[in-house]
Amino acid sequence: MPVCLTSSRDDVPYLQSQSMRNNLVFTEVPEDNTSGSEAAEATERKLRQHLQDAFKIAREMAESIWFERVHRSPGAPVTGKIRNIVAKFTFFKDREMVRKSWKQLFPPDVIQKRRVLVPKMKEARRQGKRAYLAYDTLYVDGTAVRADYIKNGTIEQVSLLKQSQDQQGKSNVADNLDTPVSNAGGQAKGALVEECRYVYLDLGSNKGVQVRKLFEPALYPGATIIPYFDKIFGNVDNRRKYACAFGFEANPRHFSRLKYIENAYRRKGFRVTFYNNAVSNEQDKNVTIYSETNFDIDWGAGILDAAIVDKINMTRYEVPTVDIVKFINKEIQPLNPKAVLVKMDIEGSEYTVLPHMLENNVLCKNVLTSMVVEMHEWAKEQMKSELDLNILRQRMSTQNCAPTEIVPVDDESYNNDVEVDPGA
Hints:
Blueprint (H helix, E strand, L loop, with lengths): L4 H16 L2 E4 L13 H14 L5 H6 L2 E7 L10 E6 L2 H13 L3 H19 L4 E4 L2 E4 L2 E4 L3 E2 L2 E2 L4 H9 L19 H8 L2 E6 L5 H7 L10 H8 L2 H7 E6 L6 H13 L3 E5 L2 E3 L5 E6 L23 E9 H9 L6 E6 L5 H10 L10 E4 L6 H4 L5 H9 L7 E2 L18
Parallel strand pairs: 9-10, 9-15, 10-11, 12-14, 15-16, 16-17
Antiparallel strand pairs: 1-3, 2-3, 4-5, 5-6, 7-8, 13-14
């Protein structure tokens, strides 16, 4: 039988494309590469769990998906680095179900912003820069860039405050939730300051439960932080009108959820902004964050691995830092808020951050009204620190200012949150 080599060669790209059409690539799925390449069975098991955690696919459905092959790519494993997972689905309908589930996690405006940002991310990577997307924000060498700040193909560098204003500060003067402050004329700044009469600074947001308690306390009966919200900021109606919440979470795996809460709350008129940065005494330094593989117990992610239960399978992320003193001085103080409450639960980093705050005179009542601090005793030895709350109070009393009030509460209630959707 004659063979048409030309036809066969022309068919190769078609056959390859048909073979690849059932593939999807997944990023940031925890990888165990400490002792060689991860077993294919372990990779597939982690992928199925990822579909449940990140894509909100029911367990029964995730377990019923058929894969022809699931493997890590590219190349050989590198300790401390997470390779992508390439999954070849047996049935195209399963592939489409997963793909559409991912798309449904993002509102249309976020999808549009990501389309604008992806070419810029690729361009930055070609230039040898560290670039990645987190929800609707591009990070280039630790600097956050949103699609709003790309003008004529050029990235416009702006402060976090301006970004948060444009993202969340809707001018009361304009009386239009679709009008960003930057377009509201000379009255916008005054309107924003009026809106941010109170500030809640959530350092170590985890899954965002504490911010939800601030704006929806009725969902969390018995939560011990709520009486302090009432005392410092006033009742919930007052908070919804005049409070601004800024949250920092180092663990990237929580960020899709946090941005979902942020966008749901903005649609309700609540001023909330989350940042994927590690709270630190240094600015724009990449640090390694250690995280549990099991999402349900992932409470202790931070710069130390001491609190991680499953150290063999723990995940490592590279995350940019934020100098919290600079953030407070440049982003919070210009708002001239009447009261600022800080919650600090940063898994051992408090032993470097608190002395830094003391040295820079921000632990003063006229800067930070009150603060909730969790001191992680297990981190003291590794951080080479003797600091505790008594020593902290003593050092604060020697400042040339009235010290920030240390609020005696440790509210760990509702860690897994309630069933009510933030957008409901």
